[in-house]
Amino acid sequence: MAIELKMPALSPTMEEGTLSKWLVKEGDAVKSGDILAEIETDKATMEFEAVDEGTIAKIVIAEGTDGVKVGEVIALIAAEGEDASAVEAAPQAAPAAKAEAPAEAAPKKAESGTQQLVAPAARVSVADPDIPAGTEMVKTTVREALRDAMAEEMRADETVFVMGEEVAQYQGAYKVTQGLLDEFGDKRVIDTPITEYGFAGVGSGAAMAGLKPIVEFMTFNFAMQAIDHVINSAAKTNYMSGGQMRCPIVFRGPNGAASRVGAQHSQNYGPWYAAVPGLIVIAPYSAADAKGLLKAAIRCPDPVVFLENELMYGHSFDVPKLDDYVLPIGKARIAREGKDVTLVSYSIGVGVALEAADKLAAEGIEAEVIDLRTLRPLDKETVLKSLAKTNRMVVVEEGWPVCSIASEIAAIAMEDGFDDLDAPVLRVTNEDVPLPYAANLEKAALIKSDDVVAAVKKVTYR
Amino acid sequence: MAKAAQPRTRKAPAAAAPKSAVSAAPASNRERPAEPVRYKASKQEMLDFYSQMLLIRRFEEKAGQLYGLGLIGGFCHLYIGQEAVAVGLQSALEVGKDSVITGYRDHGHMLAYGIDPKVIMAELTGRAAGISRGKGGSMHMFSVEHKFYGGHGIVGAQVSLGTGLAFKHKYAGDGGVAMAYFGDGAANQGQVYESFNMAELWKLPIIFVIENNQYAMGTSVNRASSEDQLYRRGESFRIPGIQVDGMDVLAVRGAAEEAVAWVRAGKGPILLELKTYRYRGHSMSDPAKYRSREEVQAVRDKSDPIEHLKKELEAAGVTEDELKALEKDIRKVVQDAADFAEEAPEPELSELYTDVLVGQY
């Protein structure tokens, strides 16, 4: 029986990849450890090694193929003593079965509760008023949108530079800075040692001296080591100096739960930074918002914490093809219009809220979904206007419940929208525990659209 | 502890003959800065150093007084005893071209960079006319115009920030250098070494200055530092270190000459350890029970940087009357600053909400 070589999952969030190059051809003898192919994942180009010995009987997926699903058969190896040409027939069934395979392949690949977060991704149903009618839309991943934003701003302003771990030669731990080193050189795309506290300080100092640094944290979990500079050095400088000394810096990187990486790598820092006066905090959902807001952040004269989401990097959205697409900081977006209940969310939670809105629509409840986009300053006006329309509100947040953005929205509704409330504001958040590793526990800890549906039924008394 | 201790001798007797500067023994045949020589100042330069040091001394005494009267609040860290460090080092820099950054004991560094005593004192009293419009206080003062970047309250933060200032000088190719001051206490913070690593890796133009005044609040260097010869702290990063008698302004200036030449030549960072002493407590609220009155008095008697230079001035032919006239002028400058700081109005209440952000959102 021929051995099936399957598309490997080479990162926790990889769902598909590009088979960039075969390094063996049919008829080659291979042994364990031989490099068979180069596979480009959502993060990097990886070498795929043989585990078994035998002869390459058939290459099923040609090199250069994009979108090869994890688990799909890419080649067949005839084991010793087996006739390589005789295995030809067997594989035919496999690719056919693969058409609906991802679900089938799932049990083999490690499951993650984060699937419930990303399944509904890439829905944006209401046109952004900031985009002129008739603008051409280009399908772009969040990752590419972020990269494009940085590249455009670096072309426009010599004082903009990027620094962080693996941002240059490695092309970014999550490939967000891919290509920047080639275009801008090592003066402006700078690999740092693993030294978050130090380089957050170096970046802040450079900003005080007049440069516009983009400091990438490999994830915001590691930025805990640097939070002193983000808050004490960057956020407070303008105020403490009586407006004399500025710190125009962007701290960016992935935030929130990734897939099966456990408690220390899975945390939403939105509420932490949003608590600090002097900071701008942005947490976009779509690729268009990621691009337009990152460009705004780089131009911003104030320090910005720009919270991305690893699970969203590979998702594609329509991005308007405009020479200079910059969005306003501090403005929420109505992602879906509705009249019966308002769902407020941001970042990856927006996808969950939109999925819940679809489910609710099937039951005759029209939910309005607000994507906050900026967490500080918070767009109270849009939130309260929607509340005045629907009289009911549920906040959806991929993060802990206590002292959260959801708590803040609830307080705003109480203080400024009390007369509009026909029911208490409810919070749908992650469970109040460190994020567990086990797939079933992880799933139970994270928000899901069914929880949102249940909360909406409570506030609408259905 | 009087003057600079001999290196490699932890318990050097106080009377040990001080060398003006000592550099770390070369670990290899790498290029090292030359042994600094005591600066040969002209009579006019000596007079300038003297009046700057005296201005700092009198200013700080006045600040102490105003604190006692309740006109200055919060933390207030005085620079008395350490004057030769800021004056000796910064006299080798170019105001407006070279950047300076320090911790919370910052009044002396500002005065040594030519910043108006009035706006500093008015900041101490929390007035609208203060350099930070009354919103910064003693520990948070800045003058971007002078390239004086603070004034930072978190111990050690200024070292990373200062490395960022040096990054800017190199990025912009403006020929400037950064000088980042920190104390013997901050020398044990982790981010200092993160910064050393990056500064040498990227050959940034920065002079790291450890002002070793022997006590981190109440903890003496020997109780806190496994390597108490702090000028060696850069060795594992290949940053050359020089130990300097920080009570002798001409020795300090001599070391500054060497350091500035090294850094401006693109050879990367350099580390100076200035052995100095603060006469007052860590802050105004420090009872200073961790050292004896005799210890402080001995330094004042034997090693005071101002008295030291005064003797040299007299030897150079400056008369007692000339020095008295100078002293009188300085007292007037300080009194004017104090009067200004007392009379200037507090910030408008509306100032509470300004300067949080630069932009409108």
User: In total, how many domains does the architecture of chain A comprise?
Assistant: 3
Instruction: Provide mean pLDDT of chain A, rounded.
Output: 91
Rg of chain A: 24 Å
Radius of gyration of chain B in whole Å, from Cα? 20 Å
Order of helices and strands of chain B: EHHEHHEHEHEEEHEHEHHH
CATH superfamily of chain B: Thiamin diphosphate (ThDP)-binding fold, Pyr/PP domains
**Strand fraction of chain A:** 15-25%
Amino- and carboxy-terminal Cα gap of chain A: 58 Å
The largest sheet of chain B has its strands arranged as 1-8-9-5-4-2-3
Which oligomeric state applies?
A: heterodimer
Helix content of chain B: 25-40%
How many angstroms does the end-to-end distance of chain B come to? Answer: 56 Å
The CATH C-level name of chain B is Alpha Beta
- Sketch the major β-sheet of chain A: 7 strands, mixed
Keywords (chain A): Lipoyl, Oxidoreductase, Pyruvate, Thiamine pyrophosphate
Organism (chain A): Edaphosphingomonas laterariae
GO biological process, one term (chain A): pyruvate decarboxylation to acetyl-CoA
Subunit structure (chain A): Heterodimer of an alpha and a beta chain.
How do the helices and strands line up, and which of them pair or pack?
The complex is a heterodimer of chains A (462) and B (361).
Chain A: E1 3-6, E2 16-22, E3 29-30, E4 35-40, E5 45-49, E6 54-59, E7 65-69, E8 73-78, H1 93-98, H2 101-105, H3 115-118, E9 137-141, H4 142-156, E10 160-164, H5 180-184, E11 189-191, H6 196-208, E12 212-216, H7 227-235, H8 237-240, E13 250-254, H9 270-274, E14 280-282, H10 287-299, E15 304-308, E16 316-320, E17 333-336, E18 341-345, H11 349-362, E19 367-371, E20 374-376, H12 380-390, E21 393-397, H13 405-417, E22 426-429, H14 439-445, H15 449-459
Parallel strand pairs in A: 10-11, 10-12, 12-13, 13-15, 14-15, 18-19, 18-21, 21-22
Antiparallel strand pairs in A: 1-8, 2-4, 2-7, 3-6, 4-5, 6-8, 9-16, 14-20, 17-19
Helix pairs in contact in A: 4-10, 6-7, 11-15, 12-13
Chain B: E1 21-23, H1 43-68, H2 83-90, E2 99-102, H3 107-112, H4 117-124, E3 148-151, H5 157-172, E4 178-183, H6 190-201, E5 206-212, E6 215-216, E7 219-220, H7 221-224, E8 241-245, H8 249-264, E9 270-275, H9 293-303, H10 305-315, H11 320-343
Parallel strand pairs in B: 2-3, 2-4, 4-5, 5-9, 8-9
Antiparallel strand pairs in B: 1-8, 6-7
Helix pairs in contact in B: 1-2, 1-10, 1-11, 2-8, 4-11, 5-6
Subunit structure (chain A): Heterodimer of an alpha and a beta chain.
GO molecular function (chain A): pyruvate dehydrogenase (acetyl-transferring) activity
Organism (chain A): Edaphosphingomonas laterariae
